[in-house]
């Protein structure tokens, strides 16, 4: 792999950019791999990357039914934070956030991680108490967050209206090292690194059946023929229920549409990420100048990657009170992704009833931030059969009543 | 935007008039049932890519609950039916079979 560097850019500038290589090989499926990962979203690619990097397992294929990063990884609003409430969440999300800090250097690929700071607004007294509790929990977990006053919110976000009639800003949970990154670059950077380790990233290859023998996984059928494997990792987000149905078991997951939209580009006006969970809306400004806006999920099961218009309307209506200037903006485009939501709003990283098959799903509305940490943990789970980061996230926690309740932290989609 | 017809009051309205109530025909097992059965009832979901039976409430209308059969891949609503039943009516199942041959959903098809 040719390394990217300032020198390489200068060199290529001198020779009309003829020397750049493909970032990853266009691989063809082999008959057998040690490990097959289904789904080339961020989580699948990161899992493969850490299998190679941390455990030296490189006879790996990553199968993708569409194009790389074309699922939720390429559709999300890229918020990165780790201010969750429960200890197992703090462990995996903070691991993830900290890996983002050096991801560009580790992958030699600019993922544009921008720890610009993130505020979750408290707009009711209930939320004030909730976020104060989270701030205390974060202090004990070693995650750096603080509860800030409305005046400090206004200082950080001059375009905000803190004394709206219905939802005044009463404070905020501030994580100074939260922020955003470039979503496609995260997928592309991992794909390039995986390909470089000799792994096969195979696009337009849909898994249509999971083959088992005596309760153990032996391979998959795909639209490009059968492929054998010793271990299988299902990392397909909204399609997890469907994949596990092929393997003969059910999941405590429902797939619903989540939408986002962006405005026309405008001059820099907000250099932090702001989330307003009570009114179900959040916003950040991209480097191009677009205001990136997201809201809540639709209420019904859906696999179509389109959501209902009225949710967009509700999100924007809610944001206008807190950010009056939004009312003057034209919206450029809107899209949807299918997110995999669990009963306790926490993910599942787990062994399954099928021996040799593992799943990583249930990240729902908030898994972009978790990509590196989840890949790290899932790789350990698949390589060693156990990981301290995934112990609590088993699919069996629901039966045992050992929920990891993040309905407050994940009260709005992000 | 989904368009649903409430079988209770007969009104046909846009989705904003209704509230989605999740998967239908879940069986709540009684005393003496196993942990597995309770887990199934509380958490395990069909979440099919295809035909889905679900509960809806006509919140901004007559207020009543009812059932709907819908496709999660095309968003087509196959039909709605009364809440007071453990399974979709035969004629609705036949309609679905004509459109989606071979569909299955838990115990009925
Ligand atoms: C609108 C929106 C906004 C969001 N905002 C945020 C945010 O601000 N911050 C945040 O942290 N998270 C956010 N999320 C959530 C985040 O996008 C997801 O949790 C995360 O991207 C999931 O990554 P993944 O790799 O698990 O899934 P995906 O990126 O969806 O990848 C799964 C892949 O599996 C493939 N696949 C499925 N079935 C098969 C099959 N049978 N065979 C082969 N391949 C298959 C799919 O094509 C897909 O590419 C948002 C999501 C949406 C939709
Ligand atoms: Zn009615």
Automatic annotation (TrEMBL), chain A:
Superkingdom: Bacteria
Reaction(s) catalysed (UniProt annotation): sarcosine + O2 + H2O = formaldehyde + glycine + H2O2; sarcosine + (6S)-5,6,7,8-tetrahydrofolate + O2 = (6R)-5,10-methylene-5,6,7,8-tetrahydrofolate + glycine + H2O2
Key words, A-Z: Cytoplasm, FAD, Flavoprotein, FMN, Nucleotide-binding, Oxidoreductase
Principal place of residence: cytoplasm
Entry's Gene Ontology cellular component terms: cytoplasm
Cofactor requirements of the protein: FMN; FAD
Residues in Rhodanese domain copies: 35-79
GO MF: nucleotide binding; sarcosine oxidase activity
InterPro entries referenced in this protein's UniProt entry, alphabetically: FAD-dep_OxRdtase, FAD/NAD-bd_sf, Rhodanese-like_dom, SoxB
Subcellular location: Cytoplasm
Pfam families documented for this protein: DAO
Listed EC numbers: 1.5.3.24
Keyword Oxidoreductase set for record: yes
GO biological process, any: tetrahydrofolate metabolic process
Keyword Flavoprotein attributed: yes
Protein family per UniProt: Belongs to the SoxB family.
PANTHER family membership: FAD-DEPENDENT OXIDOREDUCTASE DOMAIN-CONTAINING PROTEIN 1 (PTHR13847:SF287), SARCOSINE DEHYDROGENASE-RELATED (PTHR13847)
NCBIfam families for the chain: soxB
Protein name, entry field: Sarcosine oxidase subunit beta
Annotated source species: Pseudosulfitobacter pseudonitzschiae
TrEMBL record, chain B:
Pfam families (alphabetical): SoxD
InterPro entries in UniProt: SoxD, SoxD_sf
Gene Ontology MF annotations: sarcosine oxidase activity
Any one GO biological process: tetrahydrofolate metabolic process
Official protein name in the record: Sarcosine oxidase subunit delta
Organism: Pseudosulfitobacter pseudonitzschiae
């Amino acid at each position: 792999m040719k390394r990217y560097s300032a020198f390489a850019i200068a060199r290529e500038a001198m020779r009309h950019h003829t020397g750049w290589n493909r970032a990853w090989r266009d691989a063809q499926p082999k008959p057998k791999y040690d490990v097959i990962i289904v789904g080339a979203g961020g989580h699948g690619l990161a899992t493969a990357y850490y299998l190679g990097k941390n455990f030296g397992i490189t006879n790996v294929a990553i199968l993708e039914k569409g194009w790389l990063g074309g699922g939720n990884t390429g559709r999300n609003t890229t918020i990165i934070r780790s201010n969750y409430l429960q200890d197992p969440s703090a462990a995996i999300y903070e691991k993830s956030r900290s890996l983002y800090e050096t991801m560009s250097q580790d992958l030699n690929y600019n993922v544009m991680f921008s720890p610009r700071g993130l505020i979750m607004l408290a707009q009711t007294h209930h939320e004030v108490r909730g976020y104060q509790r989270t701030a205390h929990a974060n202090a004990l977990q070693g995650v750096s967050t603080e509860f800030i006053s409305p005046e400090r919110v206004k200082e950080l976000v001059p375009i905000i209206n803190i004394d709206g009639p219905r939802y005044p800003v009463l404070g905020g949970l501030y994580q100074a090292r939260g922020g955003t990154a470039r979503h496609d670059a995260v997928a592309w950077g991992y794909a390039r690194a995986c390909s470089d380790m000799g792994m096969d990233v195979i696009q337009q290859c849909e898994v249509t059946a999971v083959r088992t023998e005596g309760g153990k996984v032996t391979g998959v059928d795909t639209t490009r023929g059968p492929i054998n494997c010793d271990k299988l990792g299902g990392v397909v987000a909204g399609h997890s229920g469907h994949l596990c149905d092929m393997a003969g078991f059910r999941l405590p997951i429902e797939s619903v549409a989540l939408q986002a939209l962006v405005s026309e580009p405008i001059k820099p006006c907000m250099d932090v990420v702001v989330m307003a969970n009570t009114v179900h809306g959040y916003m950040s400004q991209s480097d191009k100048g677009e205001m990136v806006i997201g809201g809540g999920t639709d209420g019904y099961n859906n696999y179509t990657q389109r959501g209902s218009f009225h949710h967009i309307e509700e999100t924007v209506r809610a944001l206008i009170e807190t950010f009056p200037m939004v009312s003057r903006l034209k919206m450029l485009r809107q899209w949807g992704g299918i997110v995999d939501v669990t009963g306790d709003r926490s993910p599942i990283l787990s062994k399954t009833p099928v021996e040799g098959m593992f799943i990583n799903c249930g990240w729902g509305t908030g898994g972009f931030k978790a990509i590196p940490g989840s890949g790290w943990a899932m790789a350990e789970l698949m390589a060693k059969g156990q990981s301290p980061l995934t112990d609590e996230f088993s699919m069996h926690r629901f039966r045992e009543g050992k929920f990891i309740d993040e309905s407050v932290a994940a009260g709005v989609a992000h | 935007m989904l368009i649903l017809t409430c079988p209770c009051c007969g009104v046909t309205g846009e989705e904003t008039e209704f509230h989605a109530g999740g998967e239908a025909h879940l069986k709540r097992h009684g005393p003496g049932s196993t942990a597995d059965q309770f887990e199934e009832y509380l958490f395990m979901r069909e979440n099919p890519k295809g035909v889905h039976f679900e509960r809806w409430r006509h919140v901004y209308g007559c207020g009543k609950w009812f059932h709907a059969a819908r496709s999660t891949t095309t968003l087509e609503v196959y039909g709605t039916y009364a809440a007071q039943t453990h399974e979709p009516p035969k004629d609705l199942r036949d309609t679905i079979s004509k459109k989606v041959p071979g569909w299955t959903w838990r115990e009925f098809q």
